[in-house]
Amino acid sequence: MSTPKRPSKPQALKGEHEPIAIPSLSASVVLVAPLKERTVDGYDYRVLLLKRNARSSTFVSAHVFPGGNVDPIDSSNVWDELYPESLGQPDADAVARMRRLRICAARECFEECGILLEESKGSKGKEIWAAIPESERKVWRDKVHDDGESFFDLFKLLSPSGSPPSRPALSSLKYRANWITPRQVKTEWPYCLSSTLLTYKSLITFRMNSRRFDTHFFITILEPSLAAAVLPSATSPDAVISDHLASADGQETFYLLAELAAHKSYATILDATAERQVEAFEPELKGIKTSRGDVWPATVLPGDPEHSQTGKLLALLGLGDGDGKRRHRTFVLMPTRIPGKKPPPGLTVVGCQRRGMLELLGPGWEDMTDGDIGEGGAVKL
Question: What mean pLDDT is reported for the chain?
């Protein structure tokens, strides 16, 4: 096979002097559905992922957790009457921000998969919702999709006069992670025209991220009635990782699933979540030389010696470089050019590695490795 000619400038390529896109604030929720007993894979829970539409404007055909951008209703003071405990706090701005993000996660969860995360102390909210026909529930999902304010209207419906109010179950949403889409980068990478990564020398100019997101991830353990609705379309985190090469998914999805895969029981997931300090991760795309001697594209995270902010982090903590042995990265495949077909719109993650982050970030950031990190055979497309 002859070496292909250098491809023309992709349509997605932005101009040299266009400004870096400001990330949109968004929230996603990891829905964990407990099983009545462990299955043959050793897990006693399943995780719900949604597949984006092939014509979606972002994350085309990707498997993602339910979520989306914040809506003005998420920060509205109409929620104050339902969450009086969030008012008058010493750190009012931080409390309001987290309430906004949790409401966004709950709203998007209902809009995208029909799961209503509701809590009430003595109210009739669950009883009223259970009595509503499925066709009418679908109408409410459409209403919320078209107008975020309908989410608040729904909880007013579930709170009849004289009954304690029903409200989104924000207390069940535990803060897990914060990922920021990398800044625009202009990088030259070889296209893959065979089953082996980085085979041909034809280069493309690849500029990422005309749209960026500042996504905050929450995790919740579903109660039995909600878990029953999720289980038919949910899967184990390990199974998703095994199939990950088949789709161009975000590194944050792979990373979070790899963390979950270390927990065979849902009972330990929230313990690990509660004790860790969430740090904002903004990956950087780098070329990493593997133990096999080849160079792979990877997204490196704070704490990795290849990340530009690691030096500042180490100085702040008064730590040394750890002999350069710390690792915090995901290995990826760049879009593959196949004659007659368009390349996938993003990066396909094949593995992740976290080593030495416990010392930097604290409990909840223990070592983990999953997928291909350049120590085995060649990655196959």
Answer: 79
Polymer length in residues for the chain: 381
CA torsion through residues 208, 212, 218, 223, sign: negative
Could you report the per-residue pLDDT of 307-355, keeping only the tens digit for each? 999 999 999 989 888 788 899 999 887 665 555 655 555 667 888 899 9
Does the pLDDT of residue 197 top 80, yes or no?
A: no
Q: How far is CA 167 from CA 58, 83, 131, in A?
A: 30, 8, 17
Q: How far apart are CA 269 and CA 174, in angstroms?
A: 10
Nearest to 307 by CA among 188, 183, 220: 183
DSSP states of 103-138 as a string? Answer: HHHHHHHHHHH----EE-SS-SHHHHHHHS-HHHHH
Nearest to 163, CA basis, from 128, 138, 215, 211: 128
Query: pTM for this one?
Result: 0.84
If phi over 0 gives left and psi between -120 and 50 gives alpha, with beta otherwise, what is residue 65? beta
Q: Give Cα separations from 348 to 13, 54, 374 (angstroms).
A: 19, 16, 15
Q: Are strands 280-281 and 174-180 parallel, antiparallel or unpaired?
A: parallel
